[in-house]
Amino acid sequence: MSSISTVSRSPGFRSPGPRKVASSSPAESAAKQSRPRRPPAIRSRTGCFTCRGRKKKCDEIKPTCTVCQRNQLVCCWPGFAQPLPPSTGSPRTRPHQQGQSDHLHSNRDDGSGQLGDEKAHVPDDAEPLRGTTWTQILPTILPEAGPSSPATNDWLGNPTSDLPSQTTKTAVQSNPSGTEQHQCDEHVTSSHVSDFYGVRSPSDLLSPSCLLAGAPAPKRVSTLPTRDSRACELLGHYLSRTALTIGNGATDVNPFVSQLIPLSLTNDFILHMVLCQSAVHSAVEDPSKAEIASEYYSESSRLLRQEMHALGSCQETSPLYATMGALMMCFIETTKGDEKGTTFDYIRCAGFLVTAITSRPSTVQDDLKDFIIEYYIYIATTSAISMSPSSTSALMMRSELESEARRLIDSGYVGQLCGCWLHLLLIIVHIRKLGEQSRDVDCNSGFLAADDFLTFALLHAQIQSFEPSSPFLSDDTVLCGYLFKEATYLYLLTCPSQPQRLGGPMRQTIKSSLDRAFENLRQVPASARINTSLCWPLVVIGSCVTDESLRDELRGRLQIMFLVLGFGNIRSSSLVLEYMWALPESEQGPWILWQVMRDNDIWISVA
Q1: Structural domain boundaries in the chain
Q2: Which helix (H) or strand (E) holds 234?
Q3: pLDDT score of 500 more than 90
Q4: Residue 558, class by beta-carbon neighbours within 10 Å (0-12 exposed, 13-18 middle, 19+ buried)?
Q5: What is the pLDDT of residues 567-597, one digit of tens each?
Q6: Taking a C-beta distance cutoff of 8 angstroms, is the pair 158, 97 a contact?
Q7: DSSP letter at 202?
Q8: What's the pLDDT tens digit per position in 250-298?
Q9: Region Disordered: what ranges (predicted)?
């Protein structure tokens, strides 16, 4: 008994053999003419990403189009997470980023920051990002554009500056020439699935397409050649000046270049943030460039709101780009010299997003995640001193972040922001909590409570045992570590709200700590890169100084730092110290800084 096997044929299959030419009757010809023809496939912008990259026609049949089915290819659609190839120890990868520019240009003229009509498809079973948390917190953590927006008032935060006070230009176009960005033309075959995920050479393993694990909805690759000469000039300024002044030089690799530049070349939003950071930094040093910086700043604020709304509406399921955008806006504000407190809005925004990053360990690669954690912990911890102890709960470390930070400490992590003193930053968080408790209105006793006294003793022991010595650290990094140690120690000593006895042991201990701090400070060259990390310790130390000669030394140091680094918050920090030194000595100290800012209507971050 013979068996007959049935062979299934995919659409478009043609049987081999000689072609037969047969005459047809008029009836058969009429039947052929009346037979409905299949609609022609066109090269549309809405086809699958596989056909777009191969420049092939796509009939847009989901989940697998006819072309991909016929050629046995992986059919990739916006909003669908693609399965990754089996890992053999290589970094996880994702498709190249596409489709961003049209999305970002949709509402650029009105500046409203709303999303376009075209929305990426998200499967019904897709896991929402922390439920409805995003849509609930959006109105409270992101500054809205309006009359009081920092984009339109007191540009660069300098009342005595000649810079414009309002933004009058329209948003910066990411593609001013109107030229169409080129799509990838690499051919994808079933035997080279890794090519589809962007790995074609060892250098591609360093690209951000390999840093995301299974995140759907790739965006259009950001091609810098399509931008104008101004963007290229700003990128050159960022690489040669801005990135070197943001990072303190504690490590050989600067993540503000090694992480942000590759990430910006695959995402227009991050690229715009990089250009904005460069434009603002350039404007602080050269006021004639303030108009350009104002344009980039206004557009960056709008794009971040757009990214957050896309995240809240599940159009974007990876919080990476919004997280980096919020963190970069924090430094953009400090570079600009924000005196309206806008920095703290972005810090709160970044806090929610960084928590989402740490709760999903497969979202980004380890080195990028470590940089994000360091980025947030540094700026949140050093900025909290500017706010009332009773109102900084949003800036405190959550348990997930603190656990990740302790993991970095145990591994001997050294960063371009936290240097070798990441442990001290966590101690500052607990000192902040202790200060809030000691200033409780119900605590009328002249002594600390028993629990608070024990906490004080434990923190005191941790600070005294901190030693930033390591054979891999430069002398400047070690000296800066000791400066942070003395500043943290002063922050703890001034934590109790009870007044200090004149000539008592506490006053003597503070004086000894100040002497050690200035001894270390004088050994750090005024032009060294490590000075970019000294704003917080100098403000804490300066708030405890009563000797006029030491104050003059700090004035000169901060002035040199501003001229060398070009950060607006250094100039603002010097102004806050002048307000502090005008008060009676009994009312001075790091825990009074927020009151000085409140009384003088100046809210700055000393990060």
Answers
A1: 133-144+151-173+203-410, 451-599
A2: helix 229-237
A3: no
A4: buried
A5: 999 999 999 999 999 999 888 999 999 999 9
A6: no
A7: G
A8: 999 999 999 999 999 889 999 999 999 999 999 999 999 999 999 999 9
A9: 1-45, 86-183
Residue at 96: amino acid letter: H
Output the pLDDT for position 457: 94
In the 8-state DSSP scheme, what is residue 61? -
Residues sharing a CB contact under 8 Å with residue 357, sequence separation 6 or more, in sequence order: 319, 320, 323, 363, 364, 369, 372
* Positive/negative CA dihedral, 159, 161, 162, 163: negative
Report how far residue 350's alpha carbon sits from residue 326's, in angstroms, rounded to the nearest whole number: 5
- Tell me the H-state helices in 411-544: 422-438, 450-464, 475-493, 505-521, 535-544
Residues 229 and 242: their CA atoms lie apart, in Å, by 18
Distances in Å between the Cα of 159 and the Cα atoms of 156, 229, 279, 282, 339 are 9, 31, 20, 18, 10
Tokens standing for residue 84: 């990754």
Residue located via tokens 């690489």: 239
Please say whether the beta carbons of 221 and 90 come within 8 A: no
Instruction: State whether residue 497 is helix, strand or coil.
Output: coil
DSSP letter at 525 equals -
Decide if 192 contacts 206 (C-beta within 8 A): no
pLDDT, one tens digit per residue, over 102-135 is 433 333 333 333 323 333 333 333 333 333 333 3
